[in-house]
Amino acid sequence: MEDLILVAGATGDLGGKLCRSLLDKGARVRALIREESDRKKVEELRRSGVEVVAIRFKEEDGLITACKGVSCVISALAGLRDVIITAQSQLLNAAIKAGVPRFVPSDFCTDFTQIEPGENRNFDLRREFKDILDASDIQATSILNGAFAYVLRYDIPLLDTRSKSITYYSGKADWQIDFTTVEDAAAFTACAALDADAPRSLRIASFRTDPDELAALTQKVFGERFDLNEKGTLEQFSAYIKKTRAEDPEGESQLYPQWQQMQYLHSMFAAHHHTLDNDRYAGLTWHTAEMTLKEINNKKA
Questions:
Q1: Burial of 168 (0-12, 13-18, 19+ CB in 10 A)
Q2: How much is the average pLDDT of 110-122?
């Protein structure tokens, strides 16, 4: 019998692509959704062949039933403490009680084990859940993919198509930053979910690039070389972020307040993969930095 994989957060972008990748690999897929989930997305999942189960995370019996017969649970949940800690813990406990052998948490980010506590609020939550997961009796695999490549579309300081500039920090002009597209992350994670021998952590990147390389690539893709803009030290940036956060207590209840967005940029320059596991599974193709910048250019044209 083919594997049965449960995907929590299946109506999100990553979750939906995970379901499709798993189906393409011949797995059966069960999607765990909230009762208030987007009806259109739910129907799309059903039409694709996904078994859809609506659940309340606080109802343990229903969660356990949803996990019955599953070979791996993948969490693609997104949120703050109520999701990353509370809901994921409820899902984890149900998986264990249902006898599920494997669990993939909703990490999908820079290797937060290299980031100092307090430097990235959302990574701190993942670190906290990692401790919970590692103390449990289940085999876990985290997919660490650096930054999602789509952030480059939004004129972040690292690549600002409006000012034609590339911001970096002192001594970091040649710092390799890991980027992965959602499509590539989903395809790799599907392989990992079907791999009973997958290790505790797998590190991937569609491409790796640094500010110097980005500047050269802008000349090729946009027809002009963006200016490199050194913005002081990473330590100065960290201090500025902490000050901004302290002045914005309302941002603590928001997923992406301005200071959290800055924390993600800081993390890009504070940690990167030392080795990649891209070659663990055959048959995967990876997006390149040039492909990503061309897509950005085409959308702005």
A1: buried
A2: 97
